[in-house]
Amino acid sequence: MIPIKKYIKVFFFFISTILAVSTVCVAVSDFNEEDFLMDILWRKVELAKLEERPKVALVLGGGGARGISHIGVLRVISEEHIPIDVVIGTSVGSITGAFFCAGVPFDSLDDLAKTIGIKDVSNYSYPSLISMFLNENLLSNENLENLINKIIGDIRFDQLKIQLICIATDLNTGERILLREGSVAFAARASSTIPGIFKPVEYMQRYLVDGGLAENIPVNVAKIFGADVIIAVSVSADITKNNTANIFFTLMQAMYIQGMILDQYNLNMADVVICPDVGSLSVLDFKEAHKTIDKGFIASKRVVKNIKKVIINKMMEKYLLE
Predict the structure, then answer these.
(1) SS3 198
(2) What DSSP line would sit under 235-296, residue for residue?
(3) 28-77, pLDDT tens digit by residue?
(4) Catalytic residue positions?
(5) Any idea what DSSP says for residue 2?
(6) Model pTM?
């Protein structure tokens, strides 16, 4: 049974909100009472201390070039003052998550998206491709780590403004590996190492590859770390539109099919899911990737009211339970 003082606490919370509404005289015909009330409640969320509001997790899924759309999502999150306490990213979600948690300006990310190419994140060249197919020498994505270091500096996880967790996969055991200590750039690189294309990254006697093999949209990890509200961003491929004309694309298609069931399981556990319309873009099509930023922005704008409602409702629950 909930003590009477908890009800009194909630009662005074709502009374203060009603009084705030009643003191405002609005003479416009298109006034929306629900939106106005939510704005006032949201203001209380913005002013609340960390311990007074729910813990919010942002889960950024993997998807190669499609993940550039995360930038549009993150811009809306920032502009709408959605409080984010932890970011959990897989593959490209780890990279964009690292930029966000380090506080990189969005204009800089927009510029990066317009210029980045496969050579900026790997040692891709015709000689390296020939060596790959003739001598089975996989490409290296060390350039990706260098690029991230150039943008955010050689910083550690404990130096980030927002907590970040990067998801990778142990190639030998299939285990999901949570990277949250040490170099941020190294962890993001390990989380984004596509198997069969890039050399596995060695870490503490393990060989790590793309986290998407184990968990492409790691909502489950957000629950493990005690998130009260989970916002998940899915940039998964539309497998019906994928090109399977060569070995690489066939390998990627097999990975997508394998992960579809687990992805859906994770998305069902999220409070709000954001799905930018990017499913037809190839994982390595960086030339068109910058165009997906707007799609991420639009998809986020559609659900931002739902995000705020969920956070407000969870905050009401804290008032009852504390």
Answers:
(1) strand
(2) ----GGG---SSHHHHHHHHHHHHHHHHHHHHHHT-SEEE--S-TTS-TT-HHHHTTHHHHH
(3) 556 677 788 888 889 989 999 888 899 999 999 999 899 999 999 999 99
(4) 91, 210
(5) -
(6) 0.87
Task: Using the CB atoms, write b or e for 9-45: b if 16+ within 10 Å.
Answer: eeeeeeeeeeeeeeeeeeeeeeeeeeeeeeeebbebb
Any idea of the CA torsion for 100, 106, 109, 111, to the nearest 10 degrees? Answer: 180
For residue 83, give the amino acid letter: P
Contact indicator for 78, 162 with CB cutoff of 8 Å = no
Residue 87 phi/psi, 5° resolution? -115, 130
Torsion of CA 125, 131, 133, 134, to 10 degrees: 150
Phi and psi of 206, rounded to 5°?
A: -115, 160
Question: CA 56 to CA 80: how far, in whole Å?
Answer: 14
Q: Are 57 and 229 in contact (CB under 8 A)?
A: yes
Instruction: Give residue 19's Cα distance to chain centre.
Output: 38
| Alpha carbons 238 and 317: distance in angstroms, whole number | 38
- DSSP states of 72-101 as a string? HHHHHHHHTT---SEEEEETHHHHHHHHHH
Distance of CA 45 to the CA centre of its chain: 22
Q: CA-to-CA distance for 133 and 268, rounded, in angstroms?
A: 40
User: Do 79 and 250 contact (CB within 8 A), yes or no?
Assistant: no
Q: Which two tokens stand for residue 182?
A: 């040490």
